Amino acid sequence: MKCPYCAVLDNKVIDSRLSQGGQVTRRRRECDGCQRRYTTYERVEQAMPLVLKRDGQRQPWDRMKVLRGLRRAVIKRPVDAEAIDRLVDTLERNLMDSGEKEVTAADIGEQVLAGLRGLDQVAYVRFASVYREFADLDQFVQELTRLRHDAAEEPKGDE
What we know:
Blueprint: E1 11-19, E2 24-31, E3 37-43, E4 50-52, E5 58-59, H1 63-73, H2 81-98, E6 102-104, H3 105-119, H4 121-131, H5 137-153
Parallel strand pairs: 4-6
Antiparallel strand pairs: 1-2, 2-3, 4-5
Helix pairs in contact: 1-2, 1-4, 2-3, 3-4, 4-5
Protein backbone atom coordinates (compact mmCIF):
# COMPACT_ATOMS: atom_id res chain seq x y z
CA MET A 1 0.00 0.00 0.00
CA LYS A 2 1.49 3.32 -1.10
CA CYS A 3 1.41 6.17 1.42
CA PRO A 4 -0.96 8.89 0.16
CA TYR A 5 1.36 11.56 1.61
CA CYS A 6 4.89 10.55 0.56
CA ALA A 7 4.31 7.55 -1.79
CA VAL A 8 6.56 5.21 0.23
CA LEU A 9 5.44 1.58 -0.06
CA ASP A 10 6.53 0.48 3.43
CA ASN A 11 3.96 0.80 6.21
CA LYS A 12 2.64 -1.06 9.20
CA VAL A 13 -0.90 -1.85 10.17
CA ILE A 14 -1.73 -0.30 13.55
CA ASP A 15 -5.34 -1.45 13.88
CA SER A 16 -7.83 -3.59 11.90
CA ARG A 17 -11.58 -3.65 12.43
CA LEU A 18 -14.58 -5.01 10.65
CA SER A 19 -17.17 -2.43 9.68
CA GLN A 20 -20.41 -2.23 7.74
CA GLY A 21 -21.68 -5.50 9.13
CA GLY A 22 -18.46 -7.40 8.51
CA GLN A 23 -18.45 -6.54 4.80
CA VAL A 24 -15.45 -4.20 5.00
CA THR A 25 -12.13 -4.34 6.85
CA ARG A 26 -10.94 -0.95 8.04
CA ARG A 27 -7.19 -0.71 8.58
CA ARG A 28 -5.25 2.10 10.25
CA ARG A 29 -1.75 2.24 8.82
CA GLU A 30 1.40 4.16 9.66
CA CYS A 31 3.93 5.04 6.96
CA ASP A 32 7.51 3.96 7.68
CA GLY A 33 8.75 6.94 5.63
CA CYS A 34 6.90 9.98 6.98
CA GLN A 35 5.25 8.42 10.09
CA ARG A 36 1.83 9.79 9.09
CA ARG A 37 -1.25 7.66 9.61
CA TYR A 38 -4.01 6.91 7.15
CA THR A 39 -6.99 4.59 6.81
CA THR A 40 -7.62 2.00 4.13
CA TYR A 41 -10.72 -0.07 3.47
CA GLU A 42 -10.71 -3.59 2.12
CA ARG A 43 -13.78 -5.26 0.62
CA VAL A 44 -14.38 -8.38 -1.40
CA GLU A 45 -14.38 -7.60 -5.09
CA GLN A 46 -17.29 -9.17 -6.87
CA ALA A 47 -18.30 -9.07 -10.49
CA MET A 48 -20.61 -6.11 -10.92
CA PRO A 49 -22.85 -5.69 -13.96
CA LEU A 50 -22.00 -3.19 -16.67
CA VAL A 51 -23.94 0.06 -16.60
CA LEU A 52 -25.89 0.84 -19.77
CA LYS A 53 -25.97 4.63 -20.14
CA ARG A 54 -28.74 6.64 -21.82
CA ASP A 55 -26.58 7.18 -24.90
CA GLY A 56 -26.03 3.43 -25.34
CA GLN A 57 -22.50 3.32 -23.90
CA ARG A 58 -21.58 0.53 -21.53
CA GLN A 59 -19.36 1.38 -18.58
CA PRO A 60 -18.07 -0.62 -15.64
CA TRP A 61 -19.82 -0.05 -12.30
CA ASP A 62 -18.15 2.81 -10.44
CA ARG A 63 -18.98 2.99 -6.73
CA MET A 64 -17.13 6.29 -6.36
CA LYS A 65 -19.23 7.93 -9.07
CA VAL A 66 -22.42 7.11 -7.18
CA LEU A 67 -20.87 8.23 -3.88
CA ARG A 68 -19.81 11.57 -5.41
CA GLY A 69 -23.35 12.20 -6.67
CA LEU A 70 -24.84 11.34 -3.29
CA ARG A 71 -22.35 13.50 -1.42
CA ARG A 72 -23.23 16.46 -3.63
CA ALA A 73 -26.92 15.87 -2.92
CA VAL A 74 -26.48 15.76 0.88
CA ILE A 75 -24.04 18.67 1.20
CA LYS A 76 -25.01 20.83 4.20
CA ARG A 77 -27.74 18.34 5.13
CA PRO A 78 -27.95 16.32 8.37
CA VAL A 79 -27.06 13.00 6.70
CA ASP A 80 -24.04 11.15 8.03
CA ALA A 81 -21.43 9.57 5.77
CA GLU A 82 -22.18 6.07 7.08
CA ALA A 83 -25.80 6.35 5.93
CA ILE A 84 -24.57 7.19 2.43
CA ASP A 85 -22.14 4.25 2.50
CA ARG A 86 -24.94 1.92 3.63
CA LEU A 87 -27.15 3.16 0.80
CA VAL A 88 -24.42 2.41 -1.78
CA ASP A 89 -23.68 -0.96 -0.11
CA THR A 90 -27.36 -1.87 -0.41
CA LEU A 91 -27.40 -0.77 -4.04
CA GLU A 92 -24.32 -2.91 -4.80
CA ARG A 93 -25.85 -5.91 -3.04
CA ASN A 94 -29.06 -5.50 -5.06
CA LEU A 95 -27.08 -5.29 -8.30
CA MET A 96 -25.05 -8.40 -7.48
CA ASP A 97 -28.09 -10.33 -6.29
CA SER A 98 -29.95 -9.51 -9.51
CA GLY A 99 -27.55 -11.71 -11.46
CA GLU A 100 -27.83 -9.35 -14.44
CA LYS A 101 -24.82 -8.78 -16.68
CA GLU A 102 -26.04 -5.25 -17.50
CA VAL A 103 -28.18 -2.74 -15.67
CA THR A 104 -29.42 0.59 -16.95
CA ALA A 105 -28.27 3.84 -15.41
CA ALA A 106 -31.98 4.66 -15.05
CA ASP A 107 -32.50 1.61 -12.80
CA ILE A 108 -29.55 2.63 -10.66
CA GLY A 109 -30.83 6.20 -10.43
CA GLU A 110 -34.27 5.05 -9.33
CA GLN A 111 -32.76 2.82 -6.61
CA VAL A 112 -30.64 5.73 -5.39
CA LEU A 113 -33.70 7.99 -5.32
CA ALA A 114 -35.67 5.38 -3.35
CA GLY A 115 -32.87 5.20 -0.78
CA LEU A 116 -32.47 8.98 -0.57
CA ARG A 117 -36.20 9.47 -0.10
CA GLY A 118 -35.95 7.75 3.29
CA LEU A 119 -32.81 9.62 4.31
CA ASP A 120 -33.48 13.25 3.45
CA GLN A 121 -36.18 14.79 1.26
CA VAL A 122 -34.10 17.84 0.31
CA ALA A 123 -31.24 15.59 -0.83
CA TYR A 124 -33.79 13.50 -2.72
CA VAL A 125 -35.04 16.54 -4.67
CA ARG A 126 -31.47 17.73 -5.33
CA PHE A 127 -30.49 14.33 -6.72
CA ALA A 128 -33.73 14.02 -8.70
CA SER A 129 -33.23 17.44 -10.30
CA VAL A 130 -29.86 16.36 -11.72
CA TYR A 131 -30.75 12.73 -12.44
CA ARG A 132 -34.06 13.50 -14.13
CA GLU A 133 -32.58 16.58 -15.82
CA PHE A 134 -35.27 19.06 -14.81
CA ALA A 135 -35.54 21.55 -17.65
CA ASP A 136 -37.69 24.14 -15.92
CA LEU A 137 -39.28 25.18 -12.65
CA ASP A 138 -42.52 23.32 -13.46
CA GLN A 139 -40.74 19.95 -13.39
CA PHE A 140 -39.18 20.87 -10.05
CA VAL A 141 -42.58 21.83 -8.60
CA GLN A 142 -44.15 18.60 -9.94
CA GLU A 143 -41.51 16.54 -8.14
CA LEU A 144 -42.04 18.47 -4.90
CA THR A 145 -45.81 18.00 -5.21
CA ARG A 146 -45.37 14.26 -5.78
CA LEU A 147 -43.03 14.03 -2.79
CA ARG A 148 -45.48 15.93 -0.56
CA HIS A 149 -48.40 13.78 -1.78
CA ASP A 150 -46.50 10.53 -1.13
CA ALA A 151 -45.45 11.73 2.34
CA ALA A 152 -49.08 12.56 3.19
CA GLU A 153 -50.16 9.03 2.20
CA GLU A 154 -47.49 7.26 4.28
CA PRO A 155 -48.89 5.66 7.43
CA LYS A 156 -47.87 7.32 10.66
CA GLY A 157 -45.89 5.31 13.22
CA ASP A 158 -48.65 5.48 15.88
CA GLU A 159 -51.52 4.32 13.65
